[in-house]
Amino acid sequence: FLFGPSTPPAGNGNNFPSAKELEKWKFRASVIMTLSSTSQGNGVSLRDLLPYVENPPASAEDPSAVRETLSIVSYFNGKPVDCGSEASTGSFSGMDARFCFPEIVAEMDCQKLITSLDASDFAAPTSFNNDMTSILY
């Protein structure tokens, strides 16, 4: 497993997550972004998220595997994706459930847009005509 056993913050007296905890979630978000971009709109399966859980089970068939991966899905507000014919064939298990993460995708798309724009795109206009259009820019 990637992050070691989870431990509560050591008496920092507040409810804010530690820097280590924030880095875990940032890493998980980047993994979800990568998996989402390669899934061609089919979402990310729970099986794909299993290596990134806090307390990895012995196998994907372990009853705790779904619970552990759903904690990641719920943290990022994942939305279920229709699996179509996979579920009707009988070979479908809970770990094959797929989710999309529109909030992560929207945030990453927004960051790409901002970094692709020049600083001058956010600057106020250089010439003022003393009319309302310069204020509303």
Helical amount among residues, as a percent range? Answer: 40-55%
Report, as a whole number of angstroms, the end-to-end distance: 51 Å
Strand content: 5-15%
Task: Work out the number of β strands.
Answer: 3
Q: Which shape, going by the Cα principal axes?
A: flat
Explain what you see.
It is a single chain. By secondary structure, this protein is mainly alpha-helical. It contains 6 helices and 3 strands. Helix content is 44%, strand content 6%. Strands 1-3-2 form a 3-stranded antiparallel β-sheet. It is flat and about 35 Å long.
List keywords for this structure.
three-stranded antiparallel sheet; disordered C terminus; mainly alpha; 137 residues
